[in-house]
Amino acid sequence: MYRIVTKKVLNPSVTQMEIEAPLVARKARAGQFIILRVDDEGERIPLTVAGCDAARGTVKIIFQIVGATTALLGAKNEGEYISDFVGPLGRATETEGVKKVCVVGGGVGCAIAMPAAQEFKRIGAEVTSIIGFRSKDLVILTDEFEACSDRMILMTDDGSAGRRGNVTVPLKELLESGERFDRILAIGPLIMMKFVAEAARPFGVPVVVSMNPIMIDGTGMCGGCRLSLVRDGKRVTKFACVDGPEFDGYEVDFDEAMTRGRMYAEFERHAYEETCRLLGRA
Amino acid sequence: MAIQQKKHEMPTQAPSVRAHNFDEVALGYTEDIAVEEAQRCLNCKNRPCVEGCPVRIDIPDFIAKVKERDFEGAYGVISRNSSLPAVCGRVCPQETQCESKCTLGIRFEPVGIGRLERFVADRHNERAEASPERPTSNGHRVAIVGSGPSGLTCAGDLARAGYEVTVYEALHTAGGVLVYGIPEFRLPKRIVAKEVEGLKALGVKVETNVVIGRTLTIDELFDMGFEAVFIGSGAGLPNFMGIPGESLVGVYSANEFLTRSNLMKAYRENPTTPIMKGGRVAVVGGGNVAMDAARTALRLGAEKVYIVYRRSMEELPARREEVEHAEEEGIDFRLLNNPVEILGYSNPDDPRDPKNGSVTGMRCIRMELGEPDASGRRRPVEIPGSEFVLDVDTVVMAIGTSPNPLIKDTTDGLEVNRRGGIIVNEDGLTSRSGVYAGGDAVTGAATVISAMGAGKTAAHAIDAYLSSK
């Protein structure tokens, strides 16, 4: 059993928790993920590590309530326990040799982008952050991004906070004005990552994206998290859990990933409704 | 009294009933049947059956005890060599091991050794109350990576010899392939849980949710005070064929399909983990895992299940009993067929059509057997122009696995072979001092009992190594 040490509601659908898991806290680095089960009957879900405190033995997770499991998790309080918490899984964000980076985060993906931005800052890179949300009441982590960025650009779809528009607008402007980055790291919805890669492609700036496919074991056993890369015209199958979760944004077949991500949409919608009913929130 | 020529039949659930439930297919011998079957044993001097057992159980001795109705005595004989008798009695391929060597088998059917082993273990487990006496600790600590058959066997043997053993398991439940891979109807999970409880009673610690190679490395285990490590991390990443369409919605690896159903209990009525239920299913492959996947699909409610295998029945690697059970239940064997493409749905007018990207069929080509290949089996050759489409909406790839790179990549000096399997000597010792390995992590996908044999060999070697230190 793993204790929920702190809980903070960041916006109506996004919650942050620190979970007591000393072995994971000692090892986890930006870009890696954990898998948890809320209770003994629950499904296993992957969540990217949003930070950790080795001294306190805690791991920070930030999650959006999108389905049955995240709804159950969100209903838990400080001092309560979840049954399983395993990690750190996957490979850490590659930062070596990066001197100037643009970190692009979309929605709850900003929670994953934030520790990466902090890590780039820590190694002395110049960090530009572009973070995007649907509207003002969904904005999270601006203080954290301010603190680790040389320049932070906030975007909302409706213009209710920061600039109006999606994250590719300022990215394109920067690239067109002659700004060059050693790397663009994009973390957010698949469609956003796809368009970041498209925006950067004419300029040849390397794009790394963080994939978050459906997963079960997370250790390289089930193969459910596979995705296709198109490399030199050939399709290559990779496993997000052991080969990723970060991949070359120019190689990922996003359309296929989107189709696979919707595989259980119907099942998940029913499960979510059922859970909301049980939690008395319908 | 003349010897009965055939084995006593194993009572089973009727095929038409069991095809729709996840309860165990074989029901087990009664006491009387077991005693009668035991009386078929000739108790011959040279004991060839023992040679056929990877963990060398004293088979004629335990059968003699069954004959005398001393069932606990029989259990005592088996448990001298086997940590998991209730498991082995169910999933061992006895027909190619102990029973294949049985003297009675020269003229008649061999003694039903596996069925007797299962009977003895089940009878013990039903009645066992007092936990086994905990051995006195010798103060030496050994870490075991993985709680599958090799790890549990190694742990059990070392614990009995007085070692302080900790087993690290990556998943949330101990048992490895016995819980995520082998279905409930062939090996009920309570049987595995019981065997794990037995080991805990011996003092073995089981730490779930620890991925060696990530949460902790092999070197850190030594830093923590363990003096030897056994790696029994099992098979790894599932293989795919590399044909078009394998990423379509509705294509699973057998590992994923079985894990969803077994470990995550998607077979239950209101599961939290989803799985494709119903429809028409093709399972590609001919091993035991393919049979398990096909029979699971059927029980999940599929209207039609095919096994698609590129060679013929003769080369099919699954156990005969599993194949017979599958056939009885109505699985349709499409032999000498090989998939060339999985076809998917695409609505050109509506890119948001939820059916887009889902499987609509599998294009196959007919094969014929040509000259023998390196494995000695006749090589299947495509028959030109014989392609056809199998009408299915779910495809399960059960064509083996490749070793998991996690431990190799995080352990300096641990040598692996060309296929990624850990290299060991005859004692199970790897290229690193104090690090032993066995089971699928070494051999690639094999059987439960061969993994147990490897765990046993390594336990013996670890004992010798640490006693001489």
Please provide a written account of the structure.
The complex is a heterodimer of chains A (282) and B (469). With 282 residues, chain A is α/β, with parallel strands linked by helices. Among the domains of chain A are: 2-89, Translation factors (Elongation Factor Tu (Ef-tu), domain 3), CATH 2.40.30; 93-184, Rossmann fold. Chain A is built from nine helices and 16 strands. Chain A has helices at residues 22-27, 68-74, 110-122, 142-148, 168-176, 190-200, 240-243, 254-261, 265-278, and strands spanning 2-11, 14-20, 33-37, 45-53, 58-64, 81-82, 84-89, 100-106, 126-133, 151-156, 163-164, 183-187, 207-210, 226-231, 234-239, 246-248. The longest helix of chain A has 14 residues, at 265-278. Chain A is globular and about 55 Å long. The model of chain A has no long low-confidence stretch (mean pLDDT 92). The mean pLDDT of chain B is 92. Chain B has 469 residues and is an alpha/beta fold. Helix content of chain B is 33%, strand content 16%. In chain B, helix 2 runs antiparallel to helix 8 and helix 5 crosses helix 8. Chain B has 18 helices and 16 strands. Chain B has a five-stranded parallel beta sheet with strand order 3-2-1-4-16. A five-stranded parallel beta sheet of chain B has the order 6-14-7-8-9. Classes of the chains: A alpha/beta (282), B alpha/beta (469). Chain A binds chain B through residues 23-24, 27, 37, 41-44, 68-69, 83-89, 216-217, 219-224, 226-228, 237, 239, 242, 253, 256, 259-260, 262-268, 271, and chain B through 170-172, 180, 208-211, 214-216, 234-238, 240, 242, 246-249, 252-253, 255-256, 259-260, 263-265, 272-274, 354, 356-357, 404-406.
